[in-house]
Amino acid sequence: MALFFVFIDGIGIGENRTENPLAAAELKSFSWFTSQNGFHNECRERYETSVLYKGIDANLGIEGLPQSGTGQASLFSGRNASEVLGRHFGPFPHSETKPLLQEGSLFHQVISMGLKPCFLNAYPEIFFKKSKKKNRWSCTTLMVRSAGVRLNRPENVKKGEAVTAEIVQTVWRDVLKQDIPEIKPEEAAGRALKAMGKNDLVLFEYYLTDKAGHRMDRDYADRVLRVLDEFLFFTIKEMNEQDTLVITSDHGNLEDLSTKSHTRNPVPLFVKGDTEAFQKAESILDITPGILKVLSKAL
């Protein structure tokens, strides 16, 4: 039994209108969970033994717009980073909230259970050079490195062991001039499924959704969602029945392209597999405890 945690940056539950790129019937993965056109504020929540869809809070009792630094630290630790800091902060983790990721994160707790976590994302060499020079890491990479888990590099992509940020490898090939081919989203999803066969927890981060929201660019939003959707839908169809898929976000953004800023909308929580631990989830603080509860059943 394994759990695949897909963290999608910057997607909230917005209005049911054509201007909302997340409220689209073409998004087969989200529509699979909601039985409607993607997901939006008119979708009924779904509470079943093996399928769950609901909205959860990302504001965490703090005024202002949620930000990635505190939102992700909260999501990956189960502790309220915004409350610790007294405000929302991002995009990188704040010095006062870094300990949540460096000491008691989801990865740390999974390892302490005697289980094996894996971070599926890969990073080009320029990322490591810049991050080390500035000593500035994202929430996910700080968590993973602090837990002593390997960050994937180009060689892992070439071996089919890891997935690039844009999933299909086009940016790495065309912009970074890496000697790798473009692949289909389904092939990338296959890598995730293979990783689930070797690990207890597999995490994948997709941040282009947040980037598209800040751009306020519908064409770009549709492109990045189309790739993500094919990746997710293949996973939904092909994953083992005993495994669990968890999908959620850190704050809203992409659902409202009329503004470049984040939103205070609830974020979606999708679960396929063991939904029991997430039935009563109210906020992003409940995701890490829920994942740990599911994984504890493997002991």
> Whole-Å distance between the termini?
10 Å
User: Can you write the helix and strand succession as a string?
Assistant: EHEEHHHHEHHHHHEHHEEH
Number of helices: 13
Mean pLDDT: 97
Helix/strand structural class? alpha/beta
Beta strand %: 5-15%
Shape: globular
Fill in the keyword field for this structure.
299 residues; alpha/beta; 37% helix
Question: Could you describe the 3D structure shown?
Answer:
The chain has 13 helices and seven strands. Helix 1 packs across helix 12 and helix 11 runs antiparallel to helix 12. It has 299 residues and is α/β, with parallel strands linked by helices. A hairpin with a 3-residue loop joins strand 2 and strand 3. It has a seven-stranded mixed sheet, sandwiched between helices. It is globular, with a radius of gyration of 18 Å.
Brief summary of the model shown:
Helices cover 37% and strands 11% of the residues.
Tell me the layout of helices and strands.
Elements: E1 3-8, H1 28-34, E2 46-47, E3 51-56, H2 68-75, H3 81-85, H4 98-102, H5 106-112, E4 117-119, H6 125-134, H7 139-146, H8 154-158, H9 170-174, H10 185-196, E5 201-206, H11 208-215, H12 218-238, E6 244-248, E7 267-272, H13 287-296
Parallel strand pairs: 1-5, 1-6, 4-5
Antiparallel strand pairs: 2-3, 3-7, 6-7
Helix pairs in contact: 1-12, 10-12, 11-12
